[in-house]
Amino acid sequence: MQPRSDQRTGLAYGLAAYTMWGLLPLYWHLLSAAAPAEILAHRMVWSLPVAVVILAVLRRWSWIRPLLRQPRRLGLILVCAVVISLNWFLYIWAVNTGHVLEASLGYFINPLVSIAFGVLVLRERLRPLQWTAVGVGALAVVVMTIAYGKMPWIALGLALSFATYGLVKKGIKLDGIEGFSAETALQALPALGYLVFLGIRGESSFTTGGVGQALLLSACGIATAVPLICFGASAVRLPLTTIGMLQYLAPTFQFLLGLAVFHEKMPAERWTGFALVWAALAVLTWDALRTARQGRTELARAAARAGETAAAEAARATRTASRPAGPETGPQAAPGPVRQ
Hints:
79% of the residues lie in helices and 0% in strands. By secondary structure, the chain is mostly helical. The N and C termini lie far apart (83 Å).
């Protein structure tokens, strides 16, 4: 069990990570003069030097050579890089075209999509309350489809791409910094080529948008890496149930930004759809907390039983060792008269 001070530190890191992720729409909105594809390319290119600096500070290079000898893992990293690139592009595009609320919906329903992937792909078995949460989430998608007059494809695209990213990463088994660095290394070269292409055509806002725009685009790597580092620091200090609850902070911030800062419309039918999603997440969270509490109780009982058994064995051994030695009781024949 983690010390209380360590858990407080982990909670601080977790709050910082999810708060920064939740406030990212403000940052992408500052870059709205640039096309979403250019913002994405700068995010990829500038993330690589940040990743290299982090690896140099931590002196974590030993994983690279073994990875280069494993084509299957390299292929999975390539898939991750492609999927997370699609996720990033869709999110930046959604923010800069006035769909922050629908983007937040995507990250609200992401846990439900991940559970569905667990059933369909990994053949996991769900508890009854998990089935209930998934069913309510599916109903919410139907309601939102009616509310928008079309399928909420931005929300579904974000949820499906991020759930796919998480699913594929399970097969790579790299820590957060290593995985981020490997994916960024694959993303950087094509992204740099695209930026050079924009520069040759005179369409790069990095060179035409002024010093402020150039600095903001250069800081995309820091905006990508810092929340990830904070998340990694929290993940090793907090139980999964706490991390699971913290993940709702980011879409909550995005939702509030969509309403209060970007003034997106929220008619009654959309409120109904969001309310259903929140109800599904409440059921999912309650089930996770209850299951974790039952697991801790069973573990404590098992430890208590093991302690009682060990104490009984020790007492028995002590009694045996302290028992006084007595005459032999084996079947020995008594001497009789000798026959002549």
